[in-house]
Amino acid sequence: MVNRYLRLLFFILAALGQLYAVQGRAQTDNRELLKRTEQLSRQFPDSAFLLLRKLYATAENGKDILTAGICMQQMGQICFNEGHYAQSLDFYQRAEKIFREQKNSILLAATLNYTGLLYYYNKQNDKAWKHYNQALGLYSKSNDGVGVAETYGNLGHLFEKRQQYDSASFYQNRALAEYKRAGNKFGTAKIYENLGSIYEDLAKYDSAYHCFNTARELYEEEHNEVASIEVVNNLGDILRKTGKYGEAMKQTRKALVLAQKTNNLYQIGSAYRDIAKTFRLLNQLDSAYDYLELSRRYTMEVYSKEGTQQTSFLQILYDTDKKNSEIVRLENIRKTNRIIAIATGLVLVLLLILVWTIFSRQRLKIRDEKLIARKNSDVYNAQRELMEMELRNKLL
């Protein structure tokens, strides 16, 4: 546990150091940091979210619009994984708007796929279908085989949820062909896993076992132990459902060892529950009860851990929203002060114009009065001269 937190501290310090240095670098450095935050989000979503907020602010200040959009997309993924769907949808929609404006079809298609998955989990199948089809069109135009395959897989899930297994198999097989063409082993394994799930629902256990086993082999080639756990558990389920209890127990215990190795509490609890089911079928009720109790304890621990993580993440969201509200408030105050300053300046200018106008009119009035006085004086002098002339004439 101590080593885990030391690794986290080292990762955060390294990421922060890179974040503060990123302002003077090119946009490619931003992309590298985004890859690191994506890795961090799988284990420490709250820390990754905070780093993404800082990177988003840096990208905005540097007018790096595309990086800002990717930050929005990743924050949406973190919120989705933590079960905060409203916040996740908000981030996805903001990222979608940026990618549309930037005309980046690949990032836009990925965001549409994420949004479709969110609608799928919220049982809004029509909206999920609409977003998946938009993503499929964009990936097809860009000749992105992996993106097309991923979207086909999502469409297959959608039909599987509706229990339309023919359509589900059709899309999963199209996804399988695209992944194989692209040479993507992880994606191919995931589709085999999806096909195994469909066959299991249809009680075609031989086909289901073949698909799950193929997926397991591909995951082992990729050294992906985390993905292998669920597949090995599924193999145990198939063997148990077909009455091969000894082989089922071996597979489930193998999944348990892998889950303990990776400290995956959810899969540990799931493995204990499956072992309990096998013991119950073998009529060893005491052992079944003991393993069921172990499963319950781990399930409670998972819920407790998830509750703590969600509380911590909600606090981060609250603090972030509070800071954003404070920034908006200060910005509004700044705008108000700017408006007041402009209004004050305009009033002063108007007052100056008014004073100048009054002063000008007063000057004109004084000048007019002087002209009138001069004219009156001239008239008076002319009349006086006439009177004097008349008087002289009379005297003569």
Description:
- It is a single chain.
- The chain has 396 residues and is mainly alpha-helical.
- The protein has 15 helices and no strands.
- The radius of gyration is 39 Å and the shape is rod-shaped.
Brief descriptors of the model:
rod-shaped; 0% strand; 15 helices; mainly alpha; 396 residues; single chain
- Point out poorly predicted stretches: 8-13, 18-27
What characterizes the major β-sheet?
none
Order of helices and strands: HHHHHHHHHHHHHHH
Provide the CATH top-level class of the domain at 1-103: Mainly Alpha
In the CATH scheme, what's the topology name of the domain at 1-103? Serine Threonine Protein Phosphatase 5, Tetratricopeptide repeat
Number of strands: 0
Provide the gyration radius in Å.
Answer: 39 Å
Terminal-residue CA separation? 139 Å
Estimate the strand proportion: under 5%
CATH architecture term of the domain at 1-103:
Alpha Horseshoe
User: Which percent bin holds the helix content?
Assistant: over 70%
Structural class: mainly alpha
Look at the structure and give the mean pLDDT: 81
Identify the overall geometry: rod-shaped
Number of helices: 15
Please render the helix and strand layout as text.
Elements: H1 2-21, H2 27-43, H3 45-61, H4 65-81, H5 85-102, H6 105-121, H7 125-141, H8 145-161, H9 165-182, H10 185-201, H11 205-221, H12 225-241, H13 245-261, H14 265-281, H15 285-395
Concise account of the structure shown:
This protein is mainly α and 396 residues long.
